[in-house]
Design brief:
Elements (H helix, E strand, L loop, with lengths): L3 H23 L6 H13 L4 H8 L3 H13 L3 E5 L6 E5 L1 H21 L5 H18 L2
Helix pairs in contact: 3-4
Length: 139
Amino acid sequence: MKRQPQFFAEYIQLYRPLLNRLNTLLAPYSLFNSQWGILKLLKLEGEMTSAEIATRRQVEKPSVTKIVQRLLEMDLVSIRPGTDRREKWIGLTSQGHETVDKIVSELEKVYCGLLEGVELEDIETAIRVMETARKNLNK
């Protein structure tokens, strides 16, 4: 029997409960996973436009605009004009940086707990497998 179906079944069994735990962790910050994804991206990559965020997060630009508007209201992001009047650069505010750092710290504990007993080599192999599967999916 091929192992690929079981691999993806295990992934699906992990994904939903992990997402629920993430949303529980984000709730005290009044954030959802979709908002967190944008905040984390801005922390890692720096300022970018809505179009760049949409491409990187693989979502529609109107969805990004709506999420960014909410993050703006929460003072987690700021928007500055670009050289082209239509271009707007989105970046984290100081409060946004602090919030992301707090969440990352909490998430590290969750992730370490979930991967307790798993060898670093196995984690690195799993990362390569997921990266390859994602690339194959996007071909």
